[in-house]
Design goal:
seven-stranded mixed beta sheet, Rossmann fold, 20 strands, Arc Repressor Mutant, subunit A, three-stranded antiparallel beta sheet, 2 domains, alpha/beta
């Protein structure tokens, strides 16, 4: 399980100061804790205990933050990811730094601050190598040069060098994280296989930009920076059913393969008998003029049998076609889809090329604005030094895969990476 930790810091000013009220700051911090905490899909924990929810501090003393980052941090590794989100007031410091307001002592009328540069040092000294810094305050983007000193970071700023308003960025960030999973979810990076920090930021920013100029006449433009933008904070693997795909049409190649296997399960038959029977089956009808109809050709049906032979689902001792023990197990339906995908991966594509590699090549081709057709996939594999035979059985496998859900359907002869789901 990924090791994700989070610290949420909220600050509100005195009653006569402009800015978000304490009710709003507390409400947003509580929402963020729920949105990314242990009860959420993102599973961020506290700094000191991976079994506890993220740390939330309001108007804290500097010593409390130092204690968390120095004395109380549970063991971290190279892959431990720390997120610090600050929402509140700030002031410029020097040319490129920023002071985050921690608390305001009423008696002395003195404010206490934590500079971004100091926070980065504390995080580095605590042993964290991967860091998400999210600051929702005025002028937050001015500290980009300071943030760049941390080698593996993704920073999100509620604004550039201008004003931030009423914690709007925090509101939109939380709403983006809270959003239920949906088809074609724009938080998901298909290239990286899940929800990434960059996608979350971009979707949060989009809703603020869509608002345009606010009632004060200012336009808030959140910014981001850093090399960790493609870090996946929630994996989204392809959702592939194990059993026979419920939405597969009987006249798809996938459905016809199922029908062919059911026929072979009845009794051993010669290849001619198998083909004769399949050509009389309605599932293999290509067109119907109301009288005779047109069926899948005998040559094409032989490729179906060759496929079943290649994937070890059928054998033909002395010319009598029948299912293997594995074939009988598969045709029961409970794991038809999963076994079919595994068989294609193992016996059709071979040891040098697996489905994950086909996935990678498909993405490369899409990045180059080329359709990931079997021909283009083969050529790209050859360009990388990997031989790949594109015979009739392999071509048939390419047409079956989209129906399994392992890859997406397309209106052209292309193999697109499958839809990912949270």
């Amino acid at each position: 399980m990924p090791d994700h930790r989070a610290l949420i810091i909220g600050h509100w000013g005195l009653e006569n100061e402009p800015g978000p009220s304490y009710q709003r700051i507390q409400g947003l911090a509580s929402r963020l804790e729920r949105a990314i905490g242990l009860e959420s899909r993102y599973r961020f924990s506290s700094l000191e205990d991976r079994e506890k929810s993220p740390n939330v501090l309001f108007n804290p003393e500097r010593a409390r933050i130092v204690s968390l980052l120095s004395d109380q941090v549970a063991r971290v590794s190279e892959n431990t990811l720390l997120m610090v989100h600050y929402v509140g007031h700030s002031r410029p410091k020097g040319d490129h730094d920023l002071d985050l307001t921690l608390r305001h002592d009423k008696k002395s009328d003195r404010k206490f601050y934590l500079s971004v540069s100091r926070l980065l040092e504390d995080v580095r000294e605590a042993g964290f190598k991967k860091f998400i810094l999210s600051i929702d305050s005025c002028h937050s983007g001015r500290c980009e040069r300071v943030v760049a000193s941390f080698p593996n970071i993704f920073a999100m700023f509620g604004t550039g060098s201008n004003y931030a308003f009423e914690a709007n960025f925090s509101e939109r960030l939380i709403a983006t994280l809270e959003r239920p999973a949906q088809r074609q979810d724009q938080r998901i990076s298909r290239r990286h296989g899940g929800v990434t920090l960059k996608k979350v930021f971009e979707l949060s920013r989009a809703s603020i930009i869509a608002d345009g100029v606010n009632k004060s006449g200012y336009k808030q433009e959140p910014t981001s920076f850093g090399s960790l933008g493609d870090e996946v904070i929630l994996a989204a693997p392809p959702q592939v059913p194990a059993g026979f795909h419920p939405f597969a049409g009987r006249r798809t190649i996938y459905g016809r393969m199922w029908t062919a296997m059911q026929l072979l399960a009845e009794s051993p038959r010669s290849g001619e008998e198998v083909i004769d029977n399949l050509q009389l089956n309605a599932d293999f009808k290509l067109a119907d003029d109301g009288i005779t109809g047109r069926y899948v050709s005998r040559d094409r049906l032989q490729i179906y049998l060759d496929f079943l032979l290649r994937v070890r689902f059928a054998v033909a001792p002395e010319g009598k076609w029948q299912l293997t023990e594995k074939g009988r197990e598969v045709v029961s339906g409970a794991r038809f889809n999963a076994e079919l995908i595994e068989a294609i991966d193992s016996f059709v594509f071979g040891s040098d090329v697996n489905l994950d590699r086909v996935d990678e090549v498909s993405r490369e081709l899409i990045s180059d604005m080329l359709p990931p057709t079997p021909k283009n996939i083969r050529e790209r594999l050859l360009m990388g030094g990997t031989p790949f035979e594109l015979d009739d059985v392999t071509k048939l496998a390419f047409t079956i895969l989209p129906t399994t859900g392992r890859f997406m359907r397309s209106s052209v002869d292309s193999l697109f990476p499958s839809e990912l789901a949270l």
